[in-house]
Amino acid sequence: MKRLFLLLVALAAISTVQAMSDYNQLGTTLNRPFKVKGGSGVLQFAKAISGVIGFDAEEAEVDTKNGFISQFSEGDGRYKTNMCVWKREDGKKMFVVSYTINETHPITPAGPCSPCHYSKIEKIEDFEILVNTGFRAYLFNEKTSTLEPMPSFPVNVMPAEITEGAFLELPQHGKDIYFVRDGVVYVLKWNGLNFNYVGPRGVGVYIIDPTSPTNVRNAPGGDIVATLDDGDMISVDRCVKGWFHISGNDYQKGDGNDGTLKYTGDKWVHGSVIHAGWNGGATVTLREQPSDNALVLFETEGNDTDESIQIKLFLDMHGKWAKVRLNNGKEGWIETENLCGNSLTNCC
Fold first, then answer.
1. Other CB atoms within 10 Å distance of the CB of residue 173
2. Are 339 and 271 a contacting pair, CB within 8 Å?
3. How far apart are CA 289 and CA 299, in angstroms?
4. Backbone dihedral angles phi then psi of residue 11, each to the nearest 5 degrees
5. Which of 179, 178, 265, 269 is nearest to 220 (CA)?
6. Claim: this prediction has a pTM higher than 0.70
7. Percent above pLDDT 90 for the chain
């Protein structure tokens, strides 16, 4: 962790503008070959680039069986990295590293928060600035024992929401990558040599449960495999008899801190405990069927103060459509793009 400490101390002295320049520098530093010693596993690969990202094997979660490494540390900021190895159909190994570094800074008492936030912030003791984040992919050259940087990330189409300045949660189990942004899951599906972008999946929701913690089950009505708290934000992508499937492995804690719902196979929560608001006062349109051409059953302007049109229950899901029951008793299908799955704001 000594390298990491020195790196964070150095970063703490730069401004936000300088931080972006530093990111470009680190990106350039990662875009070079790295000599690997002692084997061709994820641990050897991680050690090869440790001088750049500050990797410490003693403090990391190392899963050599699945070719996965995760490291998270806190101090004057937060440092997080994932690393993963894919065995390609052509016999080559591909190695991906994803990292993010945040600084913590003190702040004076604040005034009113943005209009997108539900409450006024009276005092903030400190705040974090993202100073460095990104991901890189390499192919391992067995003849030279070298990790060689790929000219671009190996995906057929990179969605605009995922840039090299993003953090990717790499899979400890399975081969596909799920990128979560604003409650929407973007799926990069492994095809044996690289990834295919198969489009966004899921809708952001958050947990509202008077009996919290909420049970997460391995099947609709199945065994309990994890729990979630009130305000935790997740993404769901389909429904079976009132049970909603959690897409990806990510969730965000209600207090704003990132977290990871550990892989447990399939993960399901009941529709009675998930909730979402209207996206910045979006028009509330309930249709008879999940179609743009279906009969409109009810339509009005969304309003944070109008409890009668808030969602009482999620009933079903079909692609970009969700079937809901409002507090006023009306039921119908709504477009999920009009929903806000953030428990801290109204997404305006």
1. 12
2. no
3. 14
4. -65, -30
5. 269
6. no
7. 34
